[in-house]
Amino acid sequence: MAPAHVYAIGKVEPRFPSLALEKEFAQVTGRTDSSGLTDRQALQKTLADRSNRYLARQLCWILSIEGLETYLLEPRDPADLDLFIEAVRPAPRPTDMDVVIGMRGAVASPDVCNGLMLPMVAVDQLYSFDRDSLIKSIPRPEGIAKEKFGATAEELFDRIMLMTDNAGATDEHRALNYLAVRYPAIYASAADAHGRNSSLAAVEVRPSALSGARRIVDVIFSYTNRSTDVTEEFPFLVTKLSPYYDR
Questions:
Q1: What is the pLDDT of residues 181-240, one digit of tens each?
Q2: Is 27 inside any structural domain?
Q3: 16, 114 contact by CB (below 8 A)
Q4: For 110-120, b where at least 16 C-beta lie within 10 A, e where not — what string?
Q5: For 229-245, what is each residue's pLDDT tens digit?
Q6: What residues make up the domain containing 18?
Q7: Residue 88, in any domain of the structure
Q8: What is the 3-state secondary structure (H, E, C) of 48-60?
Q9: Long-range contacts of 53-58 (CB under 8 A, 24+ apart)
Q10: Domain tally for the chain?
Q11: Looking at the domain assignment, is residue 91 inside a domain?
Q12: What does the alpha-carbon distance between residue 202 and residue 144 come to, in Å, rounded to a whole number?
């Protein structure tokens, strides 16, 4: 597999690469005070203890996207192991997200992670958030109610996340993922369209004619007015006659 940049959104999870490490982890956890903790809380507490850093270094770190194991992660800088440990929430929720930015390499051999063969990613940046926090952090345009803007932003974010095969490795998917977490203007535009009684019809990414040494893509958000005229039983008018410019 040729090296490629990755800008992916999913969930980071630790895995034991061998039974020996799993047993060692269980013994270490048993020596700590974990009374009343859930299994997840005990896992996070053990990993967060710096005296157990040798365990964290030997764990497999997996990025799952839409429930599918997608990448085997390695921090490019060993100091970034703290970011991996912070991604292990003591009380995980379905809306938790992790953004992984790095370089995809070859598929791991079966002996790396207990037979799990996934493309390896050297991680340059990893940051974690939950969807609700992301939505609340987006600047709300003036004149749009908080509840309406929140619903619009959630819908658009979920729409991008559910796009087919978005593993964050192609130019198209990296561009979409970047916009979803770093460019609030797309949410303001969607809220404005909803205010004009329009629905998001499609999200399309095309190579830009401006591409040269640097690859550039155009991300097109298409909206359709909800009151579009309808003719007979099956035929229908998508949009009224309007100018079209193919640049």
A1: 999 999 999 999 898 888 988 888 888 887 777 788 888 888 888 876 544 455 545 455
A2: yes
A3: yes
A4: eebbeeeebbb
A5: 544 455 545 455 566 55
A6: 1-130
A7: yes
A8: HCHHHHHHHHHCE
A9: 53/81, 55/21, 55/24, 55/25, 55/28, 56/14, 56/81, 56/84, 56/85, 57/81, 58/17, 58/21
A10: 1
A11: yes
A12: 23
User: Domain for residue 89, yes or no?
Assistant: yes
Angle 28-33-39 from CA coordinates, rounded to 5°: 70
pLDDT in the model for residue 239: 54
Here the tokens at position 101 are 């930015």
Q: Which two tokens stand for residue 139?
A: 């600047």
Cα 36 from Cα 149, distance rounded (Å): 40
- Match 């085997």 to its residue by tokens: 72
Q: Please give the share of the chain, as a percent, with pLDDT higher than 70.
A: 90
Angle between the 19-30 and 39-48 helix axes, to the nearest 10 degrees?
90
Helix (H, G, I), strand (E, B) or coil at 43: helix
State whether the Cα torsion 100-10-167-151 is positive or negative: negative
Q: What tens digit of pLDDT does each residue of 63-106 get?
A: 999 889 999 999 999 999 999 999 999 999 999 999 999 999 99
In the prediction, which pLDDT does 207 show? 87
Distance CA 243, CA 167 (A): 36
